[in-house]
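[Discussion] Sanity-checking designs against the backbone

I'm trying to build intuition for which residues belong where. Below is a structure token string of 177 positions. I'd appreciate it if someone posts a full sequence so I can compare it with mine line by line.
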């Protein structure tokens, strides 16, 4: 049997399943961040369409929530690339690193999902209100910034956690032939 697939042998801190958890962190960062981005863009986009019916000249300023929601997907992409680049079972990948990368991916992904929900709801209602009373624009932008900050906090924590050193040193896995 390949040493990589032998889950019963070796050190429990250097499990062959560690890469699975790292890849799940990679996937969850991208999936949840894109879910938040898609929801925020769609929900705020409905408000922008309604704004276009009320006053088409305001659409360019009203599209800000859609752009802010789109940025959330980039956060997930950044963290996914960093995590994927760190997973190398041939040079020794520990269970500690796998769990750290899972936590990193979940931190970014779920924070971006929450930010997308926030931006979508606020963007939809805020852009519609902006169409009726243009003085609410500054307040709308401030609320959107606080919503976007949720995703940014998750990104920062994900970057810190994904680059944490430590844990056991695992032996490199040699190619089985």
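Best answer:
Here's mine. Compare freely.
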């Amino acid at each position: 049997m390949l040493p990589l697939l032998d889950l019963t042998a070796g050190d429990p801190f250097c499990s062959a399943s560690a890469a699975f958890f790292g890849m799940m962190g990679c996937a969850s960062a991208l999936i949840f961040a894109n879910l938040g981005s898609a929801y925020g863009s769609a929900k705020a986009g409905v408000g922008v369409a309604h704004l276009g019916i009320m006053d088409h000249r305001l659409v360019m300023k009203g599209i800000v929530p859609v752009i802010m929601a789109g940025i959330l997907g980039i956060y997930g992409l950044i963290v996914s690339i960093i995590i994927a680049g760190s997973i190398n079972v041939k040079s020794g990948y520990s269970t500690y690193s796998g769990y750290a990368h899972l936590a990193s991916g979940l931190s970014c992904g779920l924070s971006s999902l929450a930010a997308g929900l926030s931006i979508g709801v606020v963007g939809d209602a805020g852009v519609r209100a902006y169409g009726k009373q243009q003085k609410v624009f500054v307040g709308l932008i401030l609320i959107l910034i606080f919503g976007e900050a949720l995703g940014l906090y998750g990104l920062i924590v994900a970057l810190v956690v994904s680059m944490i050193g430590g844990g056991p040193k695992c032996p490199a896995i040699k190619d089985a032939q």
